[in-house]
Each structure stands twice: as C-alpha cells, then as structure tokens.
Amino acid sequence: xxEMASLGSKVLQIRSVEFAGKYKVKLRVLxxxxxxxxxxxxxxxxxxxxxxxxxxxxxxxxxxxxxxSSVCRTNPASPIKFRAISDANIDVxxxxxxxxIDGATDFSFTVHRNEFAxxxxxxxxxxxxHIGARDVIGxxxxxxxxxxxxxxxxHVGIASKMFRTLAEEGINIQMISTSEIKISVVIDEKYLxxxxxxxxxxxxxxxxxx
Length: 210
Prior knowledge:
By secondary structure, the protein is of the alpha+beta class. Helix content is 29%, strand content 29%. It is built from 6 helices and 10 strands. A 4-stranded antiparallel sheet has the order 3-8-10-9, with helices on one face. A 4-stranded antiparallel sheet has the order 5-6-4-7, covered by helices on one side. A hairpin with a 2-residue loop joins β9 and β10 (182-188). It is globular, with a radius of gyration of 20 Å.
C-alpha cells in the first residue's frame, strides 16, 4: 500500500500509511459506496492466502515523464547534477545510467511534469557546461505505468509478462525501474490507456472476486 500510495493511488494518503507502518497500526479500508463487506485489511501480519494475489494493483501516471538525457564524457553521477536539481526543490524519480562503447554516458531521469521546464533550464544553464555534457534532451509527453504486488517476491516471470504484454501491443518501453514488489515503466503517453487495459487483463485485475 505504501508503494501504491507513493505512486499516486488515491485510496489512502501516503502519510497515513507511513504512520500506520511506523506504529504497527492496522488499517481497514471500507467502500464509501457499499454498507456491507469487510473491506481490505492492511497489516504486517501475513495470512496464507495473502501470497495468492501476485499483482494487487496497477497505477498509471501522466504527471511524471522522461526528463533530460545528458550525454557526457565525465563522471555522469557527479553531485553537481542532483545538487542543482535538489536545490530547486525538484523531486527526481526514475534514474538510469548507460555507458556507451565510445566512453560517453547517457544519464536519464524523470521529474514531475510541472517541474519539467524548470529542470531543463537548470540542466542547460547550470549543469551541461560544468560536466561537459554533449547535449541535453527531454520528452514531456511520457507516462509511467507501475504494477505492484507482494507476491512478486516469490513468483518469477512477472517482469517478462509485463514486457511481453506491452510488446504485443506495440508499446515501446523507454525506461524501467524495479523494486522487490514493484515494476515501473515509462512509455509514450499516447499508449497509456492501451497499456493499462492490456496489463489489467493479463494480470486478472479486471476480474471480480466471487
């Protein structure tokens, strides 16, 4: 739930989940549209049936997108890059670094769409010349799709199923980020709805419980 809340899920506010986790408080989420039902219990105590749900949630976000890719021949992880960004109070999300055979390095990361223009300005005016970057490019028409599920810890093939599903729909993956229970990909925003529908289907998230 903490992963989903951090990705923008509107079920629970992220601070409520953080406090509940810190003080081991059980949370029960009930429907605001139905009077009956046990709702969803969020707790650290795992039940036998808990691992049955490999993927428990899918989130899509269009407010985060691929930010500048800077290609340089110096150390791309130089502190100046993120010092300038952090000093401007810009939150950095997915980070990818690729080393080329010619010695150049492509360094990419994502920021909130509202901060895109500001980040581009900082990189071009304060960072590019300082680190010797060949170029700074950006894309403000990208979106992030994430699958979340505790069952990913004990089930293999989740990433390959996700990538294969997107490939079958002709959707190119621009960036990938993973954690123990989450896989996030950055894709072209125009394919967002198609990607969500396809992933909902392949992970059986569109099936109602009996």
